Amino acid sequence: MKHLLDFDDWNRGELESILETSNMMEQVLERPIKKVPALQGFTICTAFFENSTRTKVSFELAARRMSADVVSFASGASSLSKGESLRDTLETLKAMRMDCFIVRHPASGAAHQVAKFSNSPTVNAGDGRRAHPTQALLDAYTLKKHFGKLEGLKVAIIGDVRHSRVARSNAQLLKILGADVTLCGPAPLLPRELSGMARLTTDPLEAVKGAHAVMALRIQQERLSSGFLSSLYEYRAGYQVNEKLLKGAREDAIVMHPGPMLRDLEISGTLASSGRSVILEQVENGVAVRMAVLYHLLVGKK
Amino acid sequence: MITKIKNVKRTPSGPLEHLFLENDLVLGWNLEQSADLELDGKGGLIVPAFLEPHAHLREPGQTEKEDLESGLSAATAGGYGTVVCMPNTIPVLDDPGILSSLIRKAETLGLARLRPSAALSRGQKGESLADLALLKEAGATMFTDDGRTNEDAHLLRRALEYAHSLGRVVSVHAEDASLRKDGVMNEGVVSEELGLPGNPWAAESGRVARDLELCELTGARLHIQHLSTRQALERVREAKKRGVNVTCEVCCHHLTLTDESLRGFNAVYKVAPPLRTQRDCDALLGGLLDGTVDCLATDHAPHTLAEKERDLLEAPFGIGNIEVAFPLLYTRLVLEKGLSLERLIHLMTEGVSRVLGWPPSTLEPGMPADVTVLDLETGREVKPLEFRSKAKFSPWAGETLKGWPILTLVRGKVAHQI
User: Fold this and answer.
1) Do B311 and A129 touch (CB under 8 A)?
2) In this complex, is the C-beta atom of B1 within 8 Å of any C-beta atom belonging to chain A?
């Protein structure tokens, strides 16, 4: 049984195949009737133990466009910490015969536990700060659409790398697909231990040199009170992804953001709305990519 | 009543001998004497029953995880004759009345002896001293706020002075809570790749360094619990050279497991202090060899299965291991890494009695008849479902180990036998 928990058990061929399928799914989404019967009769359960609107909606749409039935289990993490084990929750859902689980959870490894306890194909929609594989896939798909290839592309990811599952998954995936990733942020937010995953630098100018794409990561206010960040003002001055910083990248460089973004904090508002920004395309591609992932896990041959 | 334990060896290559016990004391070796009860040691190695300086028996108040009976039974299955239980129960063991009743209850069980530790501070809150003199009178063998860390150095200093005047050791769970924060595993490459909050080595070594200064300042007896980092080990080594009156213990899981175990996201491996790196394991083994480490401990910390099936952020810290400690260390350290068997046994017997100021544990005539016979030859699989402990799961489930205790006597009575 195959799961998409991260890219540890996926090879390059399988991943490129998902990107190809995403292309076909994109075409489906261009039709007036945005539906294919591929997952008719399947029941997909979105189990979100952490808040999310866009990712949840994106997955639901993907499942419904494929004619699957979708049910939603939404639970603040607190109800679980009050005693009901993840296992009990899942066995309850499993008893209702779900074919697939899409999980988001604040703890790393929760998706692995879901896969184990549910014994059904499981898609990780974000576990703690460890991994968010479908985000990385849609980012890779977006890059490939723009540049025609991924091999040799240079990608700079700037922001709170320490707390970002988007950064980790992008670094993992893009490396497998032949792209070059640089992770950048202020020192307290850039763990040295990640040097095995990607190039690390605290200098944004160095990070964007020759880059095809610059991705900004969201900055969370709580980092201020826990000693990771001095002030938003100082962060903006040093690390904001804006027109000035982009001058150091390639002329045809695109600007990305996993969302939700705080305009004029980690990314300049005007840049986010400019022609170089592919932020809305990322969202659009997200549905097609998630359709492809569900197809591969539930129907497609390996 | 005369008990004869026949066919045992005092060293692996020694001759078969027979030990005679009279009631609850050792009578002598190879006597021409008839016995009321004959037990067959089957050629196993006979040792004084092991001493456990650090185990959580969860009674009172947390008996869904373990209680005196299951915990002391598990201890005898592990070859232990005496257990020092930790005071972080509910309520905390800071009251002489609770302590006495716990000891009395343990005496009725006929299992391993219970020598409880008591809290250092009232409620283990770290704000004011517990009634250490009354607790000593009620039977406390050692004082500790284990379960918590000693954040207030002033209070720890006064506690050291007071305990010293009472002739009791103070044990510390030395970790700086402000560095440790919400860390669930060792901070390092693995924690960053797994995106889990890490607990850096400096949280331990920094706090150990502070506590060593307090030990030197007060001249008291300090014991550092579950030392897990090579850096903290080095601090202790240096302090001992200066003549500081400190001892330390190392746990069996810190000698045999690393933070790589957490890659499977199994909270069974979540423990405090956390599993570290192979370099730390190697350094700790070096500490066992050069005498920096005074004794071994298990820090047996049982929880319910449901609790350990929670995710890595929510699951409680602790590994239950008292039944497999000797076989684990015998197999991994003696058989695989060449640690001497004699040294291992010392660290689980004499080493512990020296730390706690107990009389030496030997099998000479007149000594208490707390005896363990070990089968060093037969490989047996670790089967957690057959554990006496309520925590029927283990990091070593399914592994084949040698060195299982086949007979444990406490006060001259059989408490465990396979």
Assistant:
1) no
2) no
pLDDT for residue A301 is more than 70: no
CB contact under 8 A, A86 and B309: yes
Q: What's the average model confidence in pLDDT over B307-331?
A: 95
Q: Do residues B145 and B177 lie in contact, with contact meaning Cβ atoms separated by under 8 Å? A: no
Q: Quick check: is B24 catalytic? A: no
Neighbours of A24 (CB within 10 A): 13
Q: Is B191 on the interface with A (CB under 8 A)?
A: yes
Number of structural domains in chain A: 2
Question: Which residue in chain A is spatially nearest to B312 when comparing CA positions?
Answer: A107
Count A/B contacts: CB-CB distance under 8 Å.
Answer: 62
For residue B253, the SS3 value is helix
Closest residue of chain A to B195, computed from CA coordinates: A130
Predicted ipTM of the assembly: 0.86
β-strands B2-9, A254-256: how paired? unpaired
Query: Beta-carbon neighbour count of residue A233 at 10 Å?
Result: 9
Q: Is the CB of A107 less than 8 angstroms away from the CB of B189?
A: no
How many helices and strands in chain A, by DSSP H and E? 13, 9
- Find which of A161, A169, A193, A226 to mutate to test the B interface (most B CBs within 10 Å of its CB): A193
User: In which element (H, E) is residue B114 found?
Assistant: strand B113-114
CATH topology of domain B1-47+365-418: Urease, subunit C; domain 1 (2.30.40)
Give the span between the Cα atoms of A35 and A215, in whole angstroms.
Answer: 32
Chain B: nearest CA to A128, how far in angstroms? 7
Report the chain A residue with the minimal C-alpha distance to residue B187: A193
What would the pLDDT profile of B21-61 be if each residue is shown by its tens digit? 999 999 999 999 999 999 999 999 999 999 999 999 999 99
Chosen CATH of B48-364 out of 3.40.50.720, 3.60.15.10, 3.40.50.150, 3.20.20.140: 3.20.20.140
Distance CA B75, CA B398 (A): 20
All residues of chain B having their beta carbon less than 8 Å from the beta carbon of residue A113 are 265, 309, 311
CA distance linking residue B340 with residue B334, whole number of Å: 6
The 10s digit of each residue's pLDDT in A190-215 is 999 999 999 999 999 999 999 999 99
Domain hosting A139: range is: 134-282
Q: What is the pLDDT of residues A236-291, one digit of tens each?
A: 999 999 999 999 999 999 999 999 999 999 999 999 999 999 999 999 999 999 99
| Average pLDDT taken over every residue of chain B | 97
Domain boundaries, chain B: 1-47+365-418, 48-364
Tell me how far apart the alpha carbons of residues A166 and A150 are, in angstroms, rounded to a whole number: 18
d(CA B381, CA A154) in angstroms, rounded, equals 52
Q: Are strands B371-375 and B37-48 parallel, antiparallel or unpaired?
A: antiparallel
The predicted structure's pLDDT at residue A82: 57
Whether residues A262 and A143 fall in one domain = yes
Q: Please tell me which of the candidates B189, B311, B314 has its beta carbon nearest to residue A193.
A: B189
Instruction: Please give the Cα distance from A38 to A151 (Å, whole number).
Output: 31
Q: Which chain A residues have a beta carbon less than 8 Å from that of B188?
A: 193
Chain B segment 247-266 residues within 8 A of A by beta carbon are: 264-265
Of B188, B189, B313, the CB nearest to A107: B313
CATH of the domain at A212: 3.40.50.1370
A82 & A172 share domain: no
Chain B residues with CB under 8 Å of A228 CB are: none
Strands, E assignment, A13-132: 43-48, 69-74, 100-105, 122-127
Catalytic entry in B94, B299, B370, B375: B299
